[in-house]
Sequence to fold (176 residues):
Amino acid sequence: MAGYFSYFPKMLYDAEGNGNPKVVTDILRRVVSREGTDESFSALAEYEVQSGETPEMTSYKLYGTVDYYWVILLVNNVKDRYYDWPLSEQQFEEYVNSKYSNPLATHHYEITQTSGPTNSVDDSHLIQVNSTTSGASAVSNYEYERRLQEQKRRIKIIPREFIPDIIEEFKNLVRR
Fold:
């Protein structure tokens, strides 16, 4: 199976400026999922990434090969696999402790919204408010970062039977 960059076009590039260009992969090409694809593509399934699970591990679990890790990253708009992908528990603890001098300090205050959905898996029913708002609850830096990690754990997965179509579409888009 060909890797992610094997689908990218080649180009001549003179990195040393000596008039002796070399053939290189054009890594500056970018392909993103069409806006609204995940909402309109009903075949997408949800998957929860386990602590310490890498995109390659997820690909192997779901597709029997590590070769489709990049499809998972592309579908989930993961641009930085180290910070857009969920961290392991140890990485998370290290990240929070290095980012905040006091992880337990208040990050913001919030209340449950009074109209629309008032509960959710992703905490979207909560709205940020001033500390003086009646009924406001403090959210610590740690809790805030934990919520972000939990959101990153819930990813969309392309069913196995659609992978060849996704790869073909990707090849066509990246070679334009």
The helical segments are 37-40, 55-63, 69-75, 89-99, 141-153, 163-174. The longest strand covers residues 106-112. The mean pLDDT is 84.
